[in-house]
User: What shape does this take?
Amino acid sequence: MEEVQKKRMLSGIQPSGDLHLGNYLGAIKNWADRVNDYECFYFMADLHTITVRQDPSELRKRSVNQLAQYIACGLDPEKNVLFLQSHVPAHSQLAWVLNCYTMFGELSRMTQFKDKSAKYSNNINAGLFTYPVLMAADILLYQPDYVPVGEDQKQHVEICRDIAIRFNSIYGDVFKVPEPLIAKTGARIYGLTTPGDKMSKSVPDGCVFLMDSPDDIRRKFKRAVTDSDRENCVRYDKEAKPGVANLMNIYSTLTGKTMTEIESEFAGQGYGVFKPAVGDAVVEALRPIREEAERLMKDKAYLDEVYRKGAEKASYVAGKTLRKVYKKVGFYQI
Ligand code: ATP
Ligand code: LTN
Assistant: This one.
């Protein structure tokens, strides 16, 4: 039987902090579930992290520990191309070319630039401004069909499409114009102490990290904010009881149970029983991930080998696109 060419998917996460339950349920778990249907490229965007000042030894450590955590979450390096952005020079090389096909005005409109330049007002560097151009290079080098990202990155995929269309209109069909793939809103996990805001590493108390110990996880769930009406009843009502809805969402995603099933499971039992039960479900879901990641983090030789092979495979695909671009713009080939 003739083999059907799989669609290609590419995404990246910056190794700028430890991975948490939001990253896992909102992004990585979905990537791992799609591995048999797509040809997948996933990378750690270390070049992007230095747009904000980083501690060099922390960045080095996280760049390899994050790979261990990706693999432990089910991203099999035999089935996905996993690599570190700085290991593939084509990203920086194509970014320079694309800088010359991106307008100052369109970069000025990026909301992430506006937010980050307000947040880091003492370091508004040129890299922060041209961040979306590097991201466009990351994507276009691999000619993917889809780019799975969070809602916050949609604008960056749109500018990438605009750059690709502009370049193609001058030089012919060089780049595939990719589609963003936005995770369902149900996959949005909120902070345990701040149910109005998404779970984020910048609020560590309400954030469950993949490498947290079972005791820490249970403690965080015991302290989770439920609701202020003291109804003490497990009922799904996102508006009136966002904290309870968030816990139910986490429990449902992990156990596959519907909201109605969860309501009847905890009928008459109150939050004193419900919160530890969600904590236990998270402990059990994260236990194999943490144990496997801890084992892998000790095996530096293996992780280096995964990165080496990943860089080789990625460079092969990226190199083909870069050579085509260099030729089109008129760089002399030898
Ligand atoms: P921060 O914690 O500082 O807000 P982050 O963890 O969101 O940063 P990103 O690199 O922006 O880090 O996110 C990586 C991926 O994880 C993105 O695809 C993003 O949409 C997803 N993600 C992050 N937080 C959540 C969350 N709370 N719920 C669902 N998905 C999330
Ligand atoms: N900007 C993204 C990380 C990122 C990315 C990419 C995502 C860098 N390059 C290419 C998808 C495709 C973020 O901060 N989450």
